[in-house]
Amino acid sequence: MSLRCGIDLGSRNIKIALLHQPGEKLKLFQYDTIEFYRRRGRMRDGRLVLDLAGLPGLDMAPDSLVCTGYGRQTVDVEGAKTVPEIKAHVLGAVYLSDEKNFTLLDLGGQDSKVALVREGKLVDFLTNDKCAASTGRYLENMATVLGLSLEELSQYSADPVELSATCAIFGESELIGRILEGHSIARLAAGVNYTIFKRIHPLLRQLASEKIVFTGGVSRNRALVEILARETELPVLVPPHAAYAGAIGCCLRAGME
Questions:
Q1: Whole-angstrom distance, CA of residue 176 vs CA of residue 154
Q2: Beta strand pairing status for 4-9 and 13-19?
Q3: Predicted confidence (pLDDT) per residue in 144-174, tens digit
Q4: Closest CA to 166 of 186, 193, 145, 144
C-alpha cells in the first residue's frame, strides 16, 4: 500500500491531505500553525524539518510528500517536494468542484488569491500577500471588536454600514467609530463582510469568467458568498472541504511525482 501526502503550511492553520490508493476517499486533517510548529517543526541547515510520526493517518512514512506555503513565503521542507501555492490551490479547486473553466477566489488567513482557470489549467492569477486586508485575519479582528464569533459574523449581508478601511489594524478604529454612531450589530457586521468584497472585486473583474469557485477558510463566510453572488450576478460555488484545496492540490501533485 502506498501513501501520498500533501501539506499546506498556511499562516493560521496547517492542512494535511492523505491518499492511500487512487480512487480512495481523501483523509483530511487541520492543525493550528503555531502549535504544530512548536511541537513538530524545527529548522536544520536552512530547511524545515517536520516530525509527522504519530499523526492520524500517518502510521507509515509517506511514499511521496509535497508541500506548499502561503503568499511569498517559500517552503523548503526536508524530504518533500514543493509546489507554488497558486498551482496547488488550482489543482485542489478543480478536483473539489469538478469544474474546468472558472475564476478561482481563495481567501486565506493572511493572503488572497484570484486565478483564471481554463480547461483545468492555470492561465493567469493575481494575489495580495502584502497585508492582512480582505483576509481571515481581518475578519477575526473585526468580529472581536463586535463581540461576535466568525459564525455569527457570517450571518449578515444586508444593508451594510459604509466602511472604507480594510486594514486589519486601522479598520478597528473606523469600526469603533461606527459603533459610537449607534448602528446596529447587523449593519456593522454586514459592513465588515462587504469591505472584503470591495477589496477583491477589482481582482475578480480583471480575471472574470462565467462562474466563481470560492475556496480557503474565508469561504465559510456565508454572507460573503451571498454578497459575491449578488454583486457579480455570477454563480458562486463553494465546494465541500474548500479550506483544504491547497493540501488536496499537493496530495494530487504527489501522485504525479
A1: 19
A2: antiparallel
A3: 999 999 999 999 999 999 998 666 567 788 8
A4: 193
